[in-house]
Structures are given as C-alpha cells and as structure tokens.
Amino acid sequence: MDKQMQDVLELLEQNAKLTPEDISEMTRIPPEDVTKMIESLEAAGVIRYYKAIIDWDLVENPYVYAFVQIKVSLERGHGYQKIADRICKFPEVRSLRLLSGEDYDLEFMVRGRSMKDVAFFVSDKIATLGQVQNTSTHFILKTYKEDGIVMEEPEEFKRLHVSF
C-alpha cells in the first residue's frame, strides 16, 4: 500500500463524510483517482463500513454499554474462531476482540436498554456457552472519547466581571 492510499484511509477514518473532492483538496490527488482508490479499497475489504459516532447520552432513551471479558476453553482444532463465530451472531454484541495475556481470552462490547438487560444477556446467553469458563462485565458509565472524537465540548472560558 502506498503513501497516497494510506493518506486517503486516514482521512476517511477521521471523517467518513469527506467527498473525493474534499480528499483531493487535502492530498492533491485528482478526484477521479481518489474515487477509484476508494472503490478498490472497498472491493478489497480494507474499507469495511462507514459509521457515525452517536452520543447516546444526548438521546431520550439511551443504550447501556458494557465490556465483557471471557476466559474460554478451546476445542481441539478450532482455536478461538468457533467461539468467536458463535458470539458474533448475537445482535447485542457490538465488537469482539481476541486479547493477549493470561486472565481473559476474548473481550466484547455489548449493548442493551438497561443494566439488567446486559446482565441477563451475559448470564443467560454467554456464560452458558460450553467453552466459557468465566466472565467479567464492566459497565460503561461515561464516554469521554470515542474513536478519536471527544464527546464533550470544552467549556468556554468566561472572564469574570470585576467592578470597583
């Protein structure tokens, strides 16, 4: 992958709404070449999806999110893929990652309408899977930064009025 493609990917990762014309202005790559580059990156599976970052705290019925870490026993010949495929099928699971270290093997983010929904999902759907040895659930109380985006605008500095 050349430097131009890397630049286009980084710009799209920062702002997926950029048009080929916007990217062209920033990189000096002709817009037609940017369009072809993006199409080839999509076709190759390098660009998987475009998404918006939502501040659910500002929505009337927000979701509850939690990170769940699990320790699993592996089946001979399958590694982590079999359990990962199974967990990925749950619509509540937003992301899933293989971890290094000794304590836990996999970590996923789960979304529900309440802490109770998330807790029951973990206890009823995940902990009961045959390969799962134990789980650890960490509820997200506040998000300060998501995918490089600060979720709160900094307060404006206001000078105090001084009167004599």
Automatic annotation (TrEMBL):
GO terms for molecular function: sequence-specific DNA binding. Residues 1-81 form the HTH asnC-type domain. SMART domains: HTH_ASNC. Keywords: DNA-binding, Transcription, Transcription regulation. Signal peptide: none annotated. Gene3D superfamilies: 3.30.70.920, Winged helix-like DNA-binding domain superfamily/Winged helix DNA-binding domain. InterPro entries: AsnC-type_HTH_dom, Dimeric_a/b-barrel, HTH-Siroheme_Decarb, Tscrpt_reg_AsnC-like, Tscrpt_reg_AsnC/Lrp_C, WH-like_DNA-bd_sf, WH_DNA-bd_sf. PANTHER family: HTH-TYPE TRANSCRIPTIONAL REGULATOR PTR2, TRANSCRIPTIONAL REGULATOR, ASNC FAMILY. This is HTH asnC-type domain-containing protein. It comes from Methanolapillus africanus.
